[in-house]
Write a structure and sequence with these properties.
Layout (H helix, E strand, L loop, with lengths): L33 H10 L7 E5 L3 H4 L8 H8 L5 E4 L1 H7 L7 E5 L1 E2 L12 E2 L3 H6 L4 E6 L6 H18 L3 E5 L9 H13 L4 E4 L5 H7 L4 E4 L6 H13 L4 E3 L2 H4 L4 H14 L3 H15 L1
Parallel strand pairs: 1-2, 1-10, 2-3, 3-6, 6-7, 7-8, 8-9, 9-10
Antiparallel strand pairs: 4-5
Helix pairs in contact: 7-8, 9-11, 9-12, 11-12
Length: 294
């Protein structure tokens, strides 16, 4: 067993040395098989190496969320700006046209509702056969590092990775942050590295101080979650800082669907992720788009 008493936090992240990408545009994936690379290319744009995800899987534990009452009306407005739709199989099958042309991140775990104080005990709710039937580009598994349900969630992750490898479907580890878990670089360095070492092909987590060190220590791409609803200008600053510090994408849910102008907000985020716009430039674009609409 590791000697935890003498455990030291690593300090040398070699921030001046780029990660060796090999002959493929997705970090840490150069040695994967063709099927994995094909699906990862669906998720991450080959030119920018980045992705704009739109998460609308909140209903699996929150029910009818403000802004997501009518997915069939909302999602078509966003298709021009997002690369990946992240949702449950129920939402996808009922409310998303199969001809939408977008990559799919399929939520495959579920657990308690928001009425339960402890959300950390999840199960694998979607088997690999249904992920194959839905032609998912990746399977999204919630992980609860440091929470009561840590062991079971890592078991869910490992079993999903094993099944995904059988059928060349990548797995996205989604780092959960509950009420009692800290949002510090120390925590995210621990959580993202654990999930990557278990074999996740991409990781969704949160932005924090020293984020560039978290990215450097993680051998697979990190996509930053938008988290709670922020004023649009603040959300675009979060997006800009995330990409600037090494994230390979944004997964903005509430900061898109709870915006007064969701389509314009998604388009502004795309400017940052794929066109290297600053937060100021993206916000000016957002305001211009609103004025054009009105």
């Amino acid at each position: 067993m590791a000697d935890l008493d003498n455990f030291k936090i690593a300090k040398n992240y070699h921030l001046d040395v780029p990660f060796e990408m090999g002959n493929f545009h997705v970090k840490g994936s150069a040695h994967l098989d063709w099927g994995m690379k094909k699906r990862l290319s669906n998720l991450f744009d080959p030119k920018s190496g980045n992705t704009v995800m739109f998460a609308f899987d909140h209903g699996y534990f929150m029910g009818s969320v403000s802004g997501l009452e009518r997915l069939d009306i909302l999602i078509p407005q966003l298709l021009d700006s997002v690369d990946v739709l992240m949702g449950t199989r129920g939402a996808l099958r009922t409310s998303v046209a199969p001809a939408c042309g977008k990559s799919i991140a399929l939520r495959t775990t579920s657990g308690s509702s928001m009425l339960n104080d402890d959300l950390s005990h999840e199960i694998i709710a979607v088997d690999i056969q249904d992920a194959v039937r839905m032609n998912a580009d990746c399977m999204a598994v919630q992980t609860f590092i440091g929470a009561d349900g840590q062991l079971s969630s890592l078991d869910n992750l490992s079993r999903t990775i094993n099944e995904g490898l059988r059928y060349s479907i990548p797995t996205m580890g989604v780092i959960a942050v509950g009420k009692q878990l800290e949002r510090t670089d120390r925590f995210f360095k621990l959580a993202t590295r654990i999930v990557a070492e278990l074999g996740a092909n991409l990781i969704k987590t949160y932005y924090c101080d020293n984020f560039e060190e978290i990215v450097a220590a993680c051998p697979v791409p990190i996509v930053v979650a938008g988290g709670k609803k922020l004023p649009e200008q603040e959300a675009l600053t979060l997006a800009y800082q995330s990409i600037r510090d090494g994230a390979h994408g944004l997964d903005m849910g509430r900061n898109i669907f709870q915006s007064q102008y969701p389509a314009q907000m998604a388009a502004a985020i795309r400017k940052i992720v794929h066109e290297k716009a600053t937060d100021k430039e993206a916000y000016e674009f957002y305001l211009d788009a609103i004025h054009a609409k009105e």
